[in-house]
Specification:
Chains A, B, C, D: This is Four-helix bundle copper-binding protein. 4 copies of one chain form a homotetramer. The first copy, chain A, has a single domain (3-107), classed as Substrate Binding Domain Of Dnak, Chain:A, Domain 2. Helix content of chain A is 81%, strand content 0%. Chain A is built from 4 helices and no strands. In chain A, helix 1 runs antiparallel to helix 2, helix 1 runs antiparallel to helix 4 (88-107) and helix 3 packs antiparallel against helix 4 (88-107). Chain A is elongated. In chain A, 59% of the residues are buried. Chain A binds chain C through residues 41-42, 44-45, 48, 52, 56, 59-63, 66-67, 69-70, 73-74, 77, and chain C through 41-42, 44-45, 48, 52, 56, 59-63, 66-67, 69-70, 73-74, 77.
Chain lengths: 108, 108, 108, 108
């Protein structure tokens, strides 16, 4: 992976972690939280894996390909769930997730 | 910290992480999830810090005292929230949190 | 995944995290640390992914199969490196890694 | 904590995590790694706590003050160690650590 692609991927992962945690936090404050259960769950999964993979890449993990592959799958699942909800935090999160999934697939 | 106390603390932290994540998972499946929003939030906080501190201790972190102090505070907050709810997973979680808070305080 | 297999897998991941962090800590205290650079690096990769996957499983992640697959690959790589070194902490770590890789493959 | 301070803190924590992991990776490739053992150890402590605290803040943790306090202590310890070494990655890391310690103290 070239240095520029790597730097860009780390920032994309960080942005996705931020979007997912914002969405998680906002979903926990929604009135109809039950509708949001899957969103909360997937936001956490996606935030955690993005944070994990970002750190792994920066420390020179030999497993970039394996980790970005699983990260892409989780980002897509989270994006697909968030896309269903009209809330701005969900739509923003979906967009961040799909961008991140794309970047991960290129690295995998 | 003596080796036996340390081993025991790591297991207590692990047990608390397990109880908090069970409670988090169960709360996300509850019908009246809105009542559970604070529980879900604190379960994640507590599970994450317990997992973090357990790993830190095993790798010989020089910051056992600082980390167990913040962990004790988070365990107590989570235990106090879970204690309010009748569900078995909440009561079990509260118990695990208070045990873990106590163990952390002794190490801090 | 049946409940018993799941509980057993979480404990196996926890044991592997402990063994890898012990080995990491001990390698950082070795006189000839340069020989240990790959061991230190892989111990961290393996400890971190095992802790990550253990927590994911307990919180009901929908991605058990994907996560245990990447975990198995990292456990095997760490076990193969540790196996090369005579130190007891390396041999213990190799054993824990291979057990964990096996358990992960069965879950994947 | 005002939104701008919060956003700025999250980016500072992310930058410090990146600098610490770069330094960790570079130290593991140094010829005289024994000199670097404390640096490697503290880089990991610091990278991990910065990543942890960044994520906690974004998800709306109620424990910003407690977490940034322990993070400041770890950043300072890592900065003080890295400052001793002439390597560019160590000097860069020290600078990132001291900036992050300062930002954490203001939030604590």
């Amino acid at each position: 992976m070239a240095y520029e692609q790597y730097q860009s991927l780390v920032e994309t992962l960080h942005d996705c972690m931020v979007a997912c945690n914002h969405c998680y936090d906002a979903c926990l404050k929604e009135e109809n939280e039950n509708m949001m259960a899957d969103c909360i769950r997937l936001d956490r999964e996606c935030a955690d894996i993005c944070a994990y993979v970002a750190q792994s890449i920066v420390r020179g993990t030999p497993f970039v390909s394996e980790l970005t592959q699983v990260c892409a799958a989780i980002c897509e699942a989270c994006g697909n769930e968030c896309k269903k909800h009209d809330k701005e935090h969900c739509q923003d999160c979906a967009e961040a997730c799909f961008s991140c999934a794309e970047a991960c697939k290129q690295a995998a």
